[in-house]
Amino acid sequence: MKPTTLPVKARAHTNIALVKYWGKKDEDLIIPQNSSLSLTLDQFYTDTAVQFRDELAADQITFNGRTLTGDAQRKISRFLNVVRDLAGITEFASVETTNHVPTAAGLASSASGFAALAGAASRAAGLQLAPRDLSRLARRGSGSATRSIFGGFAAWQMGHNDEDSYGYPIAENVNWDIAVVAVVLTTAAKKISSRQGMRAAVKTSPYYPAWVQTATQDFETVRKAINDKDFETLGHVSEENAMRMHALNLSADPSFTYFNADTLRAMAIITDLRAAGYPCYFTIDAGPNIKVLCQKLAVEKVVSSLQSAFGEDAVLVVHPGPGLTFITD
User: Fold this and answer.
1) Which phi and psi angles does 293 have, rounded to 5°?
2) Is residue 155 within a helix (H) or strand (E), and if so which, with residue range?
3) Which residue(s) pair with 154 in the sheet?
4) How far apart are CA 242 and CA 24, in angstroms?
5) Is the peptide bond before 102 cis (omega within 30 degrees of 0)?
6) What cellular component GO annotations does this protein have (predicted)?
7) Could you give the CA distance from residue 109 to residue 234 in angstroms, rounded to a whole number?
8) 3-state helix, strand, coil in the chain (%, to 5)
9) How far apart are CA 272 and CA 266, in angstroms?
10) Whole-angstrom distance, CA of residue 15 vs CA of residue 138
């Protein structure tokens, strides 16, 4: 392959996992213990530009205007090595990334980040990968990035190796009544990374085998609910799946949690609103922040209730978003 002469810029959006993966069978290839399913969002995204250049003596990586060094730089370079191997090139790359997602705060910034990097880097290296192969490549950086290649509802087939573990779309054009209210309770980086948390749950939770079995059942139930446009089943199972995932962390040794006091407070608000007849359900990834699945009837009430508790700036209404796109300036 021959690298492009100009930088290639790609945009990918983050996603919220409705049926979560929590634990890997292969940490190097990032092969999960169970299949997962998510919804890509429209307002949280990452823009990344990549160019492979002869004159560089090392990869130059800029993140939100800051040059990366140390472990952060090495992680990106390892991913770029995968791209270089695929393309049969040796040039180092310049990478410029702008993140429009609070980093490491449970809003899956790694999903949009590595999906955008996979798109921009592969094309800059001269590759023209199909969406499935892009999802396989993105998986090598972050498991959840596998799904951010696609818009709307997307799934990640667990698989057993590099070839058969990939993402695919379920319903990219979401044309029914569903919105997401994102509640950013903190933008601080979490103390326990997703990688560390998964490893602890797999190794020490006595309930881990039951999680895999239940999550597999949840996947099929939620996929059918999407096909049927059954919001109540979608919301209920997504909420239960999230709580079971976080229960693994509480049952690990040593026990840990991503929740904080505001997480519990927000959960109680949503539970009370649902009891009052508003169609809304929460889900929580590996962090304290909450995302609330709503129908139009509930959005205004959910927003006002959460703003009263946490402030106007903490609450944002988002909708199903697009998959990976390439940007031409």
Assistant:
1) -80, 125
2) strand 153-157
3) 38, 169
4) 17
5) no
6) cytosol
7) 24
8) 40, 25, 35
9) 10
10) 14
Report CA dihedral (139, 250, 285, 283) to the nearest 10 degrees.
140
Which residue segments constitute the domains of the chain, with CATH numbers given? 8-174+322-327 (3.30.230.10), 179-318 (3.30.70.890)
Residue 212 burial (10 A CB sphere; 0-12, 13-18, 19+): middle
Greatest CA separation for the chain: 64
pTM over 0.90: yes
Report the 10 Å Cβ neighbour count for 130.
8
Contacts of 248 (CB under 8 A, 6+ apart): 22, 201, 205, 207, 208, 211
Residue 118: its H or E element: helix 109-124
pLDDT at position 126: 97
For the four alpha carbons of 20, 24, 26 and 28, in that order, the dihedral sign comes to positive
Please compute the mean of the pLDDT values over residues 78-86 and round it to a whole number: 98
In this structure, how many other beta carbons lie within 10 angstroms of the beta carbon of residue 28? Answer: 8
DSSP class of 189:
P
pLDDT digits 0-9 by tens, 20-77: 999 999 999 999 999 999 999 998 899 999 999 999 999 999 999 999 999 999 999 9
